[in-house]
Please model this.
Amino acid sequence: MPISAKKFVAALDWPRIETDLATRGSATTGVIFSPEECNALAALYDEPDRFRSRVVMQRHGFGQGEYQYFANPLPPVVASWRSALYERLAPLANAWAAAMGQPAAYPADHAAYLARCHAAGQLRPTPLLLRYGEGDYNCLHQDLYGDLQFPLQLTVLLSRPGEDFTGGEFVLTEQRPRMQSRAEVVALAQGEAVIFAVNQRPVAGTRGTYRVTMRHGVSRVRSGRRHTLGIIFHDAR
Model:
């Protein structure tokens, strides 16, 4: 990368990102990977030695398409961005936890948080590559993986919308107490990420703070092939 992931993360528009996360539970970053970097990451999908497991979604009722979880050691670009983003998001995660009456216990350093995951039996890395073809989709879900869960994650679009694929929109739903669910469709450019809530997030209401439950998925790909990178900060059992 032209500059380090840490410097790139620091240069993002965090006031706007944090406002969007507070308002909608998701925020786009702008483009963080070049087309060349996106293509190089997508090409890793065909290198099976890079991965610890492969999931064909229709076999499990998750949708259609497939994804693979990276094995350790993670590709350097994935590891560096995972660490840099965690460090910037940890204070927000602690603020969310405090607002929802939970222990604000996320350490500033990602290695320290992973050590906590491993001590709890969550040993398997969770960053993944996803591949969708024509007709594929991903059902609404949450990436929880164990008792320890960092409350934010992100997805990076590696393909070119309208050129490599059509359809395949990133979708979020928000289940509000005693109200109908709200849906949000997030448009991404190639190399752009969306940061979003993993499970629950706090919302300031007229009678104080309450929790809403978030789920995410991908609508049907109408043509072509769509690749994405998912970065989850907690490890899995």
Summary: The two ends are 32 Å apart (CA to CA). The mean pLDDT is 96. The CA atoms of residues 125 and 160 lie 27 Å apart. The helical segments are 5-10, 14-24, 35-43, 76-99, 110-119.
